[in-house]
Amino acid sequence: MRSIHFISGLPRSGSTLLAALLRQNPRFHANMSGPLAGMANAMLGEMSERNEFSLFITNEQRRRVLLGLFENYYGNEFKAEVIFDTSRTWCAKLPMLCELFPNVKMIACVRHMSWVIDSLERVIRDNALRPSSIFSFQTGGTVYSRAEGLANGEGMVGYAYNALKEAFYGAHAQHLMLLQYETLVSDPAKAMAAVYEFIGQPLFQHDFDHVDFDADAFDIRAGTPGLHTIRKKVAAPERATVLPPDVFRRFENDAFWLNAQANIHGVRVV
């Protein structure tokens, strides 16, 4: 099987930009979040003891079925030598991925939490006439209820944040690298060099002034045009937050990855 690695981490933290850059390399395939993580979860559930016939399913069979899912999903139409699959779920599945792919590497994109919430709120406001799938197309709510919904344990941000911590502090943390959004947009050459070193691939000269990625059809269907839009040129523009000060302050100390003493497994943070 070809090499497969994973992109995960927090939403609005550069995973789409990272995928857009990686796919400039003709040897690589990368994309925005896709269905494979959900399919793997469904297969795990169907092979569990909730299935009355699970007595006939061994762990080796489970492993082969899951490996077949990955191999057949990417199939022959993807000619790339190295595949990167993206999902916020993958951080929570790192033990499973290490069981399937002993040499797997996972790049988790991170960003100061206040700016993650800010970025999502900005997208919602930019589409004031279109309810978003992020909030199940509900039309009520305020910036406070939206921030609360995003940050709770089952929310879009809270789930990803907890999954990230699980991977960061877990027994398989040596397979993990954290890529800060702030590094990716301010020094993309440094960020990409770190990614190539981490996955053990020869460095490719990326074009940071002409980055292409089109997910307009997906974003429109989600009721959130612009959700995966990236700038043609990698840059770090300065802007003020759209969040009320108390909402912004609520999350400003949540960047646990910046605490070197808490990095008990020596996870590389770029």
Task: Please state the structural category.
Answer: alpha/beta
Unreliable runs = none
CATH superfamily: P-loop containing nucleotide triphosphate hydrolases
Amount of beta strand: 5-15%
The assigned CATH architecture is: 3-Layer(aba) Sandwich
Taking the alpha carbons of the first and last residues, their distance comes to: 29 Å
Q: In one word, what is the shape?
A: globular
CATH topology: the name is Rossmann fold
CATH class: Alpha Beta
Q: Count every beta strand, where a strand is a DSSP E run of 2 or more residues.
A: 6
Query: What fraction, in percent, of the residue positions are helical?
Result: 40-55%
Q: Characterize the biggest β-sheet.
A: 6 strands, parallel
Strands side by side in the biggest sheet: 2-3-1-4-5-6
Number of helices: 11
| Element-level helix/strand string | EHEHHEHEHHHEHHHHE
- The number of domains: 1
Give the overall average pLDDT: 91
Based on CA atoms alone, the radius of gyration comes out at 19 Å
Oligomer: single chain
Pfam families: Sulfotransfer_3 (PF13469)
Protein name: Sulfotransferase
InterPro entries: P-loop_NTPase
Give a description of the structure.
With 270 residues, the protein is of the alpha/beta class. The protein has helices at residues 15-22, 36-46, 59-74, 94-100, 113-126, 143-151, 156-169, 181-186, 188-199, 216-221, 245-251; strands at 3-9, 28-30, 82-86, 106-110, 176-180, 268-269. Helix 2 (36-46) packs antiparallel against helix 3 and helix 5 crosses helix 11 (245-251). The mean pLDDT is 91. InterPro entries: P-loop_NTPase (IPR027417). Pfam families: Sulfotransfer_3. This is Sulfotransferase.
